[in-house]
Structure formats: C-alpha cells, structure tokens
Fold:
Amino acid sequence: MPHRILIIDDEDDIREVAAMSLETVAGWEVMVANSGAQGLTRAATYKPDAILLDVMMPGMDGPTTFRELRKNPVTAKIPVLFLTAKVQATDRRRFADLGIHAVLVKPFDPLTLATQIASALGWK
Amino acid sequence: MGMSNPSALAEAMNRLWAQFLPQIQERVVTLESAAAALDAGSLTPAQCEEAASAAHKLAGVLGTFGLDQGTELAREAEFLYSSGSTSPSMLNGRPSELAAQLRTILAKRGK
Structure:
C-alpha cells in the first residue's frame, strides 16, 4: 500500500510540484491543503501517514498549525516535516524545539523529495 | 524507490513551469516595481514588505525548477527588502540589478 502524504502550503506552485513529485517518483498518494485551517480538517479526515507543512503561511502559519495538530488526539501522532525556504540556523533550532520530525529546505529537488521524506521518517 | 518512466518527471515539470510561469513573472514584476519606487525615493514600508514576500516565494520555487541562480538572487533580494527601505544596502542600485537578473533567468528558462 503506498504511503499517504498531506501537503499543506499556501503557494500553489510549490504544492503542485511537490504533489506531482511524490506521486510520479514514489507512487505515493497525495492530498493537499492550501492553508493551515484546511490542513487541520484534512489531516483529521484523511489521517495521512505524514504531513509536509509550509512554515510561512498567511493566517495560521506552520508552527501554529503544528501545535493545533498536536492538540487533536486524531492527528497528534502523525509525523510532521516542515518545508521551508528559511534556512538560518536560528530558524532550524526553533523548529526543532517544537518537536517536528525534520526540516526540508525549499527549493527542493523533485527527483529526491520522496527519498528525503522517507529517510527522515525511517521508511524503506 | 524508483521512477518507472524517467521522462515523466521532466515532462510534468515543464508542464507545471508553463502553468505557473505567469505568477512567477508577477513576483518579479513586484520586485521591479519596488526597485523603481526605491530609485524614485518613494518606496513605502508596505511595498518593501510585499517585495520581501515575493522574493521569499521566488527563492523557494526557482531552484525547484532547476534555476538555482534564481534562488540565490531572490534570497539576496529577500534579505535586502527584509532589512527595510532605509537600509544603506538598499541604496546602491542592487535591488534593480537583482530584479533585472531574475527577469533574464526566467526568459532563458523559456516556456
């Protein structure tokens, strides 16, 4: 059974490229959400194997969305990876302190995105 | 983990590039407008913030389409506009250069 991933990102170009990449390269099943609020609903409904979450979004940003996911027993244990163009060490430390599984950097290579996610989550 | 059809990804990327090129170009227009306003001494804080946001988005997406130099230029623009409209680093014409170079990179990638 293919892995099921939820991508939460307000930028439709990034969202579509990431989705296409994971579907085409890895054959994973991908769901998308264009905001933190929509992501919370879809995560609770679809219960994906992992969530790829943008950091900088209008309204509910990535860290806030992550904390809300953790509050809900249905989504609390779903692994979350941040996808961000913020690459400074201070940002990385702040994200790590939140308890997320990994930070993936934009821009990403569409050919290796699935491998990066699988590696971060210990998937074979 | 492998891809059954190696050309499928390249084809899909080209299709997505064509689909999203207008909004990518729009972000460069935002940078061009901000740079022009800066040169004219009329850049507002709101414009500056908008330009930083546009540059941030360009930095995130251009390298994904293979335009690594575009990401580097956009990161520099994001840094400049994030430093504020009155920063000395904004007053040497660099923002205009960055916008022009980004425009050239998009043109080279084509449709």
